[in-house]
């Protein structure tokens, strides 16, 4: 994907300027956008450029930052000058930056996709047997990827703004499947309506894309299956979740220790189903502590070492769970970190115990710049473990929650690990949450995992006492209302249809 984006980068930037407008709410899109789409997208190559523009604008750093800091993945670092104090203090309301950023970003993406899809209806496909150019195949591929990305954005919005994924009658988000006219507003749809639409988009995409995954930086049929598996797990539709996850697992391998380490240096894709590629000189090659820059700059100023200005460090509680013989320790803990065995009594804790985050140390010669992993095989393995726990198959050496957790640990430690034994379902779910905490740390999952599984596994935000002594915000029940984001004030101010549909507690 790098070469392609480099070739068309100027065209993409122009395209995004043309089709991205200032949204006053989720669907308040300037009417001239229709005309712009008609003028901009005249050929299939134009549609492909539009697709690349969507890829170039996709970003998950806001979600990574929120999941890391609001929960217990991150802690105030030695060079913190007040950054993210609201998230450390669990302050969350309709005026907060995170809900607004997630809401606006995904609705702009959906709006732009809708414009490209609308323009595609008027583009003629021509297959030339003499040149071998198959425009229908390219057309189908572009549309398939767009439908899948629209489904992913709707699902992400659901994940953050719906109170209960398992209740189809609960409020979901605004379903946006059209090019809106100026001043048009919509109310929130039900979960059932939004999830049904997501599945319809995935069905459309599946019918247009070839089977397989030749490049993890592009949407593929495996992306679709992985999204179906994640969505089914979130909805506790575990028979489906198991089927989809098993299907994906049949075609990928769990990374060896060396492959796992290389994956986070962006030189190995053994476990990667889909990722957002980042490269030197692109729009994300720069400081972006609030999101939109390098992922590593969410946590440090110049590089990932203790001397690189770490203002967010590894939470002490999760650090204590990382075994130095586990490759996940090497990936996440900078080797020059200062580890104080007497941190609990240190009078200068912030300077004697410096646990620098290494996951986004950089690649391509650029500090802090790394690809963003969206779907990995390890997640699919843990979804299967979750499905087996739900069915009561949590113990046993084969086809059980315990067996799958052991399989993952064997790979990460590079040696045979003990088989877990659980006394009940709650313990099994708790172990899944704990393993996801280590495996998916700083990838944007922790808050979502506690929201949907915390009560079932008796887990909550768990900060070490030293990490929260300044705030007192050491824990937060998984049933707290702040495990659903508020509809942002920017939407409430301009959309009268949604004002009575704010989430509880806000």
Walk me through the structure.
By secondary structure, this protein is mainly α. It has 2 domains: 2-125 and 134-278 and 373-501, Serine Threonine Protein Phosphatase 5, Tetratricopeptide repeat; 295-370, no CATH class. 46% of the residues lie in helices and 6% in strands. It has 19 helices and 10 strands. The strands form 5 sheets. Strands 1-5 form a two-stranded antiparallel sheet. It has a two-stranded antiparallel ribbon with strand order 2-3. The chain has a two-stranded antiparallel sheet with strand order 4-8. A hairpin with a 4-residue loop joins strand 2 and strand 3 (133-134). Helix 3 (44-57) packs antiparallel against helix 6 (97-120) and helix 10 packs antiparallel against helix 15 (377-390). The protein starts with a helix and ends in a 14-residue tail after the last helix.
List the helices and strands and how they pair.
Elements: H1 2-19, H2 32-40, H3 44-57, H4 61-70, E1 74-76, H5 85-88, H6 97-120, E2 127-128, E3 133-134, H7 135-161, H8 191-208, H9 221-234, H10 238-249, H11 257-263, E4 272-276, E5 312-314, H12 316-321, H13 327-332, H14 349-352, E6 362-363, E7 366-367, E8 372-376, H15 377-390, H16 401-413, H17 425-439, H18 446-457, E9 461-462, E10 475-476, H19 489-492
Antiparallel strand pairs: 1-5, 2-3, 4-8, 6-7, 9-10
Helix pairs in contact: 1-3, 2-6, 3-6, 3-7, 6-7, 7-8, 7-9, 9-10, 9-15, 10-15, 15-16, 15-17, 17-18
